[in-house]
Amino acid sequence: MRLVIMGPPGAGKGTQAVVVAGMLGVPHISTGDIFRANVSQGTALGVEAKRYMDAGEYVPDGVTNAMVRDRLTQDDCRAGFLLDGYPRTVEQVGELNAMLSAAGQSLDAVVELTVDIDEVVARLVKRAQEQGRSDDTEDVIRRRLEVYFEQTAPLTAMYEAQGLLTRVDGLGAIEAVTARIIAALAIDA
Ligand code: ADP
To answer: pTM for this one?
Structure first.
């Protein structure tokens, strides 16, 4: 299965993506995780990405697209993948589409986790206290949400028009949300 999971920062995408990818036996590909791994290893990509991440801005499309292209051509993605945090811009949607169609592939579904904005802010503030992520400060959280609603939320309409989008309520216990995702995908897992 080739899946994308979308939703605002703090919607619980990452948490759900790990569980769902495990159930489906496909790799979980989080662009945020790959950027953070590069930041902590001090690679050139990490140094570049950190400037944007710490400001709550998106890393430029050229950088992000090249990184995803590299990851999706690895062997473990042949039978499928779950993309978490990509695509996030119109250009990334086009790039993913081009990558897949060049390989004779297409997406099977796009899951949008919906969560109201007050809940999302509360979760991010809590995560800031627990994990100390450098982009979880109040100003940066506000900027990340703005960027999401300007650039990424509208992408769901594109996927909806293609009949790929399924919306899942992201509120409630982790297991309850997972069960909703699995049910929405109409798969046995
Ligand atoms: P969240 O969704 O909670 O903001 P992520 O871990 O998905 O967290 O992303 C953290 C940061 O990594 C983003 O704010 C952005 O700077 C960068 N990033 C992740 N994915 C992308 C992407 N597809 N395009 C551009 N920047 C990205």
So the answer is: 0.93
